[in-house]
Structure to design on (174 residues):
């Protein structure tokens, strides 16, 4: 019996039975008081992880929805901004055309006013020239006739002298 010389290797039926009984009692105690709560804790943790994953999936889906909505809003804002810019350009063009028209109207008005003033000054100058010609004519007539003429003779001579003068040459120069 050389194999039976070591006490740890020897098969002892009583020890074996007590080892199996202690093992079964320990297994039952562990199952009742340790494995159940451990398994319950593992199941609870598994459930919490599953719920967290579901919530994360919902949050991801919601974030995608919000991102898509945000993109739509940005697109809409860009199109609104482009419309506003286009409208502002149109308004600026209309204002520019209006300002040009007003400036042209003002320039035309001033030009017309200047023409009227020139015509008025020309008429006034011609009237002044006619008056001076009339005075000179009277002076010449006095010297030629060496007598003073009465008012009626003065008017007649002036009208004849002024009627003979051609002022259209002066008016055509303007």
């Amino acid at each position: 019996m050389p194999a039976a010389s070591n006490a740890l290797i020897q098969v002892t039926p009583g020890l074996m039975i007590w080892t199996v009984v202690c093992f079964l009692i320990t297994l039952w105690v562990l199952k009742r008081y340790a494995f159940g709560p451990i398994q319950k804790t593992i199941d609870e943790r598994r459930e919490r992880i599953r719920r967290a994953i579901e919530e994360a999936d919902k949050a991801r889906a919601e974030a995608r929805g919000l991102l898509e909505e945000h993109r739509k809003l940005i697109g809409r804002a860009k199109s609104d901004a482009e419309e506003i810019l286009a409208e502002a350009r149109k308004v600026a063009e209309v204002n520019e055309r209006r300002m040009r028209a007003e400036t042209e109207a003002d320039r035309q008005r001033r030009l017309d006013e200047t023409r009227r003033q020139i015509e008025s000054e020309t008429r006034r100058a011609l009237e002044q020239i006619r008056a001076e010609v009339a005075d000179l004519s009277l002076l010449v007539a006095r010297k030629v006739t060496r007598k003073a003429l009465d008012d009626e003779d003065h008017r007649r001579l002036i009208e004849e002298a002024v009627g003979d003068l051609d002022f259209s040459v002066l008016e055509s120069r303007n």
Observations:
- The chain has a mean pLDDT of 86.
- The radius of gyration is 63 Å.
- Residues 37 and 74 are 54 Å apart (CA to CA).
- The longest helix spans residues 13-145.
